[in-house]
Amino acid sequence: MAKEFQVQVSDETAAAFQRAAEAEHVDPIAFVGRFLEASVPRLLFLNGAQAAIDEHGDAFARRFGPPPAADQAA
Predict the structure, then answer these.
(1) How many other C-beta atoms lie within 10 A of the C-beta of residue 6?
(2) What count of other Cβ atoms lies within 10 Å of the Cβ of residue 31?
């Protein structure tokens, strides 16, 4: 079931969404909905990755050592 949210954004963000929607010939509300649907999976992935780092990062570093110095990378 679809849910409806009311959000406030800056004038600049609203104008950017309006321009993007016009460029795709779609309703701005529909454009924002599609934008959010496309953005949420990445956000969930990044939040999950950060949670894993926060929970297991120290143990991983103890097991495998610190990252190489910048001049040793690649």
Answers:
(1) 4
(2) 19
